[in-house]
Amino acid sequence: MQLKNTLMLLSLAAVWGASFLFVRIAAPILGPLPTTFLRVFIAALVLLAYINISQQPLNLKQNWKIYAGMGLFNAAIPFTLFAVAMLNLNASYSSILNATTAFFTAITASVWLKETLTRQKLLGVFLGILGVFVLVGLQPVALSFNSILSVLLILLATFSYGIAAVFAKIKGKGISPATFAAGQQLCASIIMLPMLVIGLPITKAITIEVVIAIAGVSIICTAVAYLLYYRLIANIGPTNALTVTFLIPAFGVAWGNLFLGEAISWNVLFGSLIILLGMALVLGKLNLQRQR
What we know:
By secondary structure, the chain is mainly α.
């Protein structure tokens, strides 16, 4: 891999890892629903401006159903569930659980696309589930009804990501990546607008840290990140670009420790290693089959 692509991959992992930090700061103050709405709305404005400058047609009338599907399953649902869950879970823990997206993508593809769920992938899925149980059972956060419910919400969010990945593979052909991202965030904004009303009024004081967090998660971690991700897909292919999922937890844990003082304990590292091993098997980055 060329140096510039390696740097792009690391940058994307760092940016997506930071999204958990930003949501952890904003959601307790603004509330999960306003946080999600602002994230997708500001990202939509940035992406729409980009495709307008680059003269890429949105073709909203033709593709609105596709954009709406992606906006629902790849933004509105998972972003909201993460924001709710992170009222109780820290950024480090949430970024590790995000890695289960690979497992749900594999399962969804096997059902929807009839892709073979090989023994290696099944082993990877098993390890992923085991890793989640290790994280929860060894209590990197206080074990309670709220924390367990929050873990389940994140797993539901990553399941939604898995659906979106397969949906995009089926329906996204012929749509430019930047246009796809812009249409997705625009429709997510429309979907989240009624939810914004439910989430108002905001009763807590909005600090400069919250403003920075919203700007960061919407502009950098959503709009810019999607453009960077799609550029990586064009340069090194979708399979290699997916290796970013191996790096996101490391950056999520690092940012949480650096800026929020979240502890990095041995049980967090052990559980995350099990999940990453399972993800490597699912994505085919670790091949257990004998070479002939």
